[in-house]
């Protein structure tokens, strides 16, 4: 046996937690089977990538600093090349983007530009976790990045039933009451109202309003995560974000440019306009407190990356709806293709079922057997198709009879091939489970 210097049990408990292993595990499976069709990856479509536009975006942002903001050449260079403002340098353009695309009026000072949405999650959860009685509520199934970030700050996550409406409000109220009755403090509830990852479900307008009312009645914050809102299916309308409907500062809003501009820039943001009373008697936005945490985690988000995003925003008058016309069409086409392909391969009323999301990247397929990591390996090795076990999005150890398919990084031809292979796997597995009781739960 190799000599060891440290036991993992001597490190923070999060490093040995399944939530933190999930992304690595899925990446490793994908790397191990490079020829498999991946209906697993939630990455954006690469056909539209073009590194030549990076220079155009950088130039556009430099011109903006000089011409629109009146910076001297030395100040422009300093802004791009030096350590910078902790809350970011494209906050004003993000505020404009939210006004243009979401009809949302936001004070730029309430925005912190982060290293991806992932850092925004971490900052918010770090700030909210004030003591051992604090817990986070989150709609289940939940994005694994949120669960992992909560583990890093020792914030327990309590699941709230999601269901076909996006969130079961009776269960949310129940969880809030039960948590408080136990002497604990529910600090916030994490929700993805638009085409959630992994469920694909979205909340309708009435449900959004009811959720905001409940949050006000129960004195609860909502953390709204919205990376997929710009991608409704062809015939679907976009709906207002919770934040756009929020008149009581109940919503902390998380944004990501990974799907709407490019993931390699690693730029996201948080809108945190909640008023915080400081110990010195001053009052300012929660964003200022998050910035203090950020200053000790990443200091500031790379100004070069921010400039690329800023230039991309400027290229379309700050409208990402306008910037993503091709992308929206491709994702909508793929979603339709996947759902139609499932219908052709599995009979209606049979044991294999799926939801038909109104947009986004993901579809959940329910099957008559438990789906685990071992099955994913068998699928990759024996059938050449990758997908994500839904168990990754629930509390560790809960078997789930479902898998997540993603349409974002594939062509229609790859979808056809992947579905043929998936159908072969499901037929084989179903034959193996005929007559056996299936006790795992179904999702979503
Ligand atoms: C729901 C959700 N939130 C956040 C993210 C991460 O965003 P970013 O790449 O900006 O960190 C993802 C990425 O897949 C996601 O699905």
UniProtKB/TrEMBL annotation:
The keyword Glycosyltransferase does not apply. InterPro entries: Aminotransferase_I/II_large, Class-I_PLP-dep_aminotransf, PyrdxlP-dep_Trfase, PyrdxlP-dep_Trfase_major, PyrdxlP-dep_Trfase_small. It comes from the Bacteria. The keyword Transferase applies. Keywords: Aminotransferase, Pyridoxal phosphate, Transferase. Residues 67-422 form the Aminotransferase class I/classII large domain. One of its GO terms (molecular function) is transaminase activity. Its cofactor is pyridoxal 5'-phosphate. Pfam families: Aminotran_1_2. This is PLP-dependent aminotransferase family protein. It comes from Micromonospora fulviviridis.
